[in-house]
Amino acid sequence: MSRPRKRGRDIDGVFLLDKPQGMSSNDIMQKVKRLFQANKAGHTGALDPLATGMLPICLGEATKFSQFLLDADKRYVVTAKLGERTDTSDAEGQVVETRPVNVETSQILTALEQFRGDILQVPTMFSALKHNGKPLYEYARAGITVEREARPITIFELNFIEYQAPFLTLEVHCSKGTYIRTLVDDLGEVLGCGAHVTVLRRTAVADYPTEKMMTWDALQALAEQGDLAQLDQHLLPIDTAVSKLPALQLNAEQSKGIGFGQRVKFANEAKLRGQVRFFSDKNIFLGVALIDDNNVIRPQRLITQSL
After folding, report:
1. Could you give the 3-state DSSP secondary structure of residue 49?
2. 15, 203, 211, 213 — which has fewest CB within 10 A?
3. Which positions are catalytic?
4. How is 127-150 classified by DSSP, letter by letter?
5. Are residues 235 and 283 located together in one domain of the fold?
6. DSSP annotation of 123
7. How many domains does the chain contain in total?
């Protein structure tokens, strides 16, 4: 019997793509996967086709930890056009309402105050959130509006950058689940003139450094040289996806037990609780575990490797 053919390399890590405008996050992820010849890939929170900027792409074993980046804080720089609302709340949609813009900078600064901190936001119809198993955008394209519940989000920072009527530029630091298009649309309503997104760039995900991003053109040019080892040098370690979690170093015996999926009790001198990222006695990242009140390490996500 012939062995099943492998579909790609066992390459693991996180690639920070500077997503180009005009491509969906899934399409560009598949292209990156092919260039790396990886067996598995997953992105960590979609950017609209209009948007550019940081899109962490998890390859191989890193896909097991993509949820941590989905849940991470994000930063954006957004430019909005005041005076027009669109059906998608961005420049790719159809203009549905036009109003005069009689807005001063002082009014904008006052309006921004009510969007800082813990707020409720009703997701846009043009989103991938699902209703009865179908993405909301499918209903929207069919002209159907679905009632959506407001969801709690946090706007950690909302900074005024520039206003040259009718264009307003802001910097946003927000929690997961925040729709920048909705934020801009809501702000436009508070200002009484309507607004939509014209430019959107994600500048940060979690603590990943901006300088580690690579453009699609640069990645293609490097791939054309045919040296996969050069590509691999641009992958960040898997554990960077969970860098916010406390670190725990195991001894040899504990490492062996965890490798078999066993729960391991330890002294816990640091009094760790909750989720941790843990490493073997050889300082190899093993995965994420939960430490309970009895100082027992309960593995949750494990790297598939030999200890």
Report:
1. coil
2. 211
3. 48
4. SS-EETTEEHHHHHHTT-------
5. no
6. P
7. 3
Residue 227, token pair as written in the block: 């040296």
Name 85's bridge partners.
Answer: 97
* Bridge partners for 201 per DSSP: 52, 77
Query: Quick one: which of 74, 52, 53, 63 has its CA closest to 14?
Result: 63
Please indicate, yes or no, if residue 5 is contained in any of the structural domains. no
Partner residues linked to 159 by β-bridges = 171
Global pTM value: 0.90
- The encoded tokens of residue 194 equal 């309507």
- pLDDT by 10s per residue, the chain, length 307: 445 555 788 899 999 999 999 999 999 999 999 999 999 999 888 899 999 999 999 999 999 999 999 999 999 999 999 999 999 999 999 999 999 999 999 999 999 999 999 999 998 877 777 777 777 777 777 777 878 889 999 999 999 999 999 999 999 999 999 999 999 999 999 999 999 999 999 999 999 999 999 999 999 999 999 889 999 999 999 999 999 999 988 888 888 887 777 788 777 767 788 899 999 889 999 999 998 888 888 888 989 864 4
* Domain CATH for 136: 3.30.2350.10
Domain span holding position 278: 245-302
